[in-house]
Specification:
Order of helices and strands of chain A: HHHHHEEEEEEEEEEEEEEEHEEHEE
CATH class of the largest domain in chain A: Mainly Beta
Shape of chain A: globular
Radius of gyration of chain B: 19 Å
CATH topology of the largest domain in chain A: Jelly Rolls
Strand content of chain A: 25-35%
Strand content of chain B: under 5%
Radius of gyration of chain A: 25 Å
Largest interface: A-B, 63 and 74 residues
Largest sheet of chain B: none
Number of domains of chain A: 3
Distance between the termini of chain B: 43 Å
Number of helices of chain B: 8
CATH class of the largest domain in chain B: Mainly Alpha
Shape of chain B: globular
Helix content of chain A: 10-25%
Number of strands of chain A: 19
Distance between the termini of chain A: 44 Å
Oligomer: heterodimer
Structural class of chain A: alpha+beta
Chain lengths: 369, 187
Amino acid sequence: MPNNKIWQLVARKLSDEASPEERKELESLLQKDPELAYQVDIYCHYFDHPSRETDRTAAAKEKSLDFFRRQFEAGFASPPEIYPAAFPEPKPGARPLKRWVAVAAGLITIAVTFFFLTENKNKHHQLSQHTQNEVNTLPGIRSRTILPDGSVVWLNADSKVIYDENFRGNLREVHLEGEAFFDVVKDDARPFIIHTKTIDVRVLGTAFNVRSYGNENSTETALFRGSVEITLRNKPDKKIVLKPNEKIKISNKSADGIESRNLASASGKNNTNALSMQVSKVHFREKDSSALDVLWVKNKLAFDAETLELVAKKIERWYDVKVKIENDDLRNVAYSAIFDNENIEEVMEALKISGNFKYTIDKDVITIR
Amino acid sequence: MQNELQIQYWVEQVALFNDQSAFEKIFLHFNDGLYNLAGSFVKDEQAAEEIVSDTFINLWRNRVRLLEIENLKVYLYVSVKNLSIKRLSRNRSQPDFSINDIFLPHLADTSLDPEDILVSKAMLQSLHAAIDELPPKCKLIFKLVREDGLRYKEIAQILNISVKTIDAQMAIATKRIVQSLSLIIQK
């Protein structure tokens, strides 16, 4: 049970009353409690986006103004009921007008996933000479980090994010290896760009999720609201703009790979020909309408009609184990499942039952046959 | 930023040139917050209307001193509060007013949809319910921070309580609201 300090810090942060030190303190407290951090995150979004339902209608205000005008005319015939209170004392030094809340009002949520092939050595993008910050996670570990502009990054297991110390310059550039969920502070003057091996994702003010498995030969972007612009690394002139609830899948190998232009969405009319890509709909969970692509942020391991081969890779990263599939017939059997806080044995048992296979666990090595 | 500059411009227009249309713009700008504040005290639409109107009539009378006001927002909120309490004490036998008597039936929900932040509808509902159940004083402070964008120090001046109290009340509100979420998630 967190102590009262943390509530005070959350309240101060939301009210823009927190000092930089207090923000740091809050971050480190939340880092120790991902469950609470998640709840606080939801609350912060809620807090920063009040509905306007309690606002008066334009008609009510107009009526108010009419009433005031009549009083105003009559007001000079009689003395006012009460004179105003003394003028408040001048405040020492004007405070900066920029409010954290105002910035946060433009919060956009994105998630990016990218897994490099392990033998990838040559950095695709020459990093600038500024001081670079690097955040790493080991297999089996997930973490949460704040970028210099206030944007939040949730880093999935076995991933790495690199960024310029202060986001100097006109762009906020982040290099990603692995999987991450970004909560980006909107700043029209400095676009936010995520570089991955295959694609660059430019945030146009929206909520979206990019997911790209290098060792599974594809990169995915799922868009929830607004729009995002995707540029292929090997075809920089090719820009793809996604519509809400669309998901795009691009081959990591090359742009002239297998053509599978299966436009399941109504608006998937982008110039996707000659590229190995596929546009489809984002899958939402019916129960609570959370998107399957980002369940990992909530500590849930999800498979969305994924082959056992992909499932095995996810399990390897999630539990820091090795999974071997000895029976090749099993590789392309598709699984859909969501695991919440289950251990590896429970996950394997569940898969075994629906998949009709046998497996053994020997220390960190799981063998499916 | 834009707002502050705009208001400053209107204030100058009123103070220096008796600009009535600029004055009406100030009236409309603060109408939501002031009307709701008056309403939470007097619990009567017409009375709230009169209090806001009186506040601005007084402001107009003092317009030559308008530029001396350090914080117009605080000044207006204090005026509305004072006029509200004065009206209440006139209608009642006992003159003392307790902040726990204020009535705030509806605070703003969120403009976000569950999918915007990838949570369930039940979670958002639970947050809203927890806010609605806050004690009156706590709720008023919460509202002034969240919906009216006031600083702790400004609220302290308006409600005539210490910043420390506001800090504590906001922590209580945060705790209750976030904890309502943990119940939902564990279900």
